[in-house]
Specification:
The chain has 199 residues and is of the alpha+beta class. It has 5 helices and 7 strands. It has a single domain, classed as Aminopeptidase, CATH 3.40.630.30. The radius of gyration is 16 Å and the shape is globular. The model has no long low-confidence stretch (mean pLDDT 96).
């Protein structure tokens, strides 16, 4: 790992300029458990368009030389897809008050040096700048406890998220579909939301 990491920020349509870097990073990081994501750059380009279409969307990324090694994104919940908005609409949340956090991803060799906290700091600060958002949220996949692909040394991020002030909301769930590594057909995955109040 280089000691010369550089950081960039992008807003709204500007995010499209790093779609390829971000897509490749997402495919690399999400191939590991618990996501086991068999991604393609074509699908990534379609998925990431949500950020470019949202004027208030935000990306903060880390480069080591010319390679993106970490990134995080967020966007107002109202600008997210139907699948993401639905559980909040069903229970009557005011979507205009919620900022949704997308991926927070780092290549393994860059973990443990504080970048995970930096990603949350940057996104929360971005949401506060507008003065109208009271809540931030994100979702995470839930796999079976005895999943055959779970590594013996696997540790979920729950403790880290709790330390950041987020609380798991078991009643708020979405279902996303993607292709698992080694499979031939996409399958549905349960995604559970975590929320915190902005200070």
């Amino acid at each position: 790992m280089s000691q010369n990491l550089t950081f960039i920020t992008k807003h709204g349509p500007e995010i499209a300029s790093v779609f390829e870097d971000l897509g490749q990073l997402r495919i690399a990081v999400f191939s590991d458990f618990p996501y086991l994501y068999e991604g393609t750059l074509t699908h990534e380009m379609e998925y990431l368009q949500t950020y470019a279409d949202s004027p208030r969307a935000f990306l903060f990324a880390v480069y080591d030389g010319s390679k993106m090694v970490g990134a995080t994104t967020c966007t107002p919940l109202v600008d997210e897809t139907d699948d993401v908005r639905l559980p909040f609409e069903q229970v009557g949340f005011n979507l205009d008050s919620i900022f949704y956090f997308g991926e927070s991803i780092l290549l393994p060799s860059y973990r443990g040096i504080g970048l995970g906290h930096r990603f949350f700091d940057e996104r929360e600060a971005h949401a506060r700048r507008f003065g109208t958002y009271t809540t931030t949220c994100f979702c995470a996949v839930e796999r079976a406890e005895n999943h055959p692909a779970q590594p013996q040394d696997y540790r979920p991020n729950d403790a880290f998220w709790t330390k950041r002030g987020y609380q798991k909301q078991p009643t708020l769930q979405s279902t996303f579909e993607w292709l698992d590594i080694g499979q031939t057909q996409p399958t549905a995955k349960k995604m559970v939301y975590w929320m915190r109040n902005l200070d």
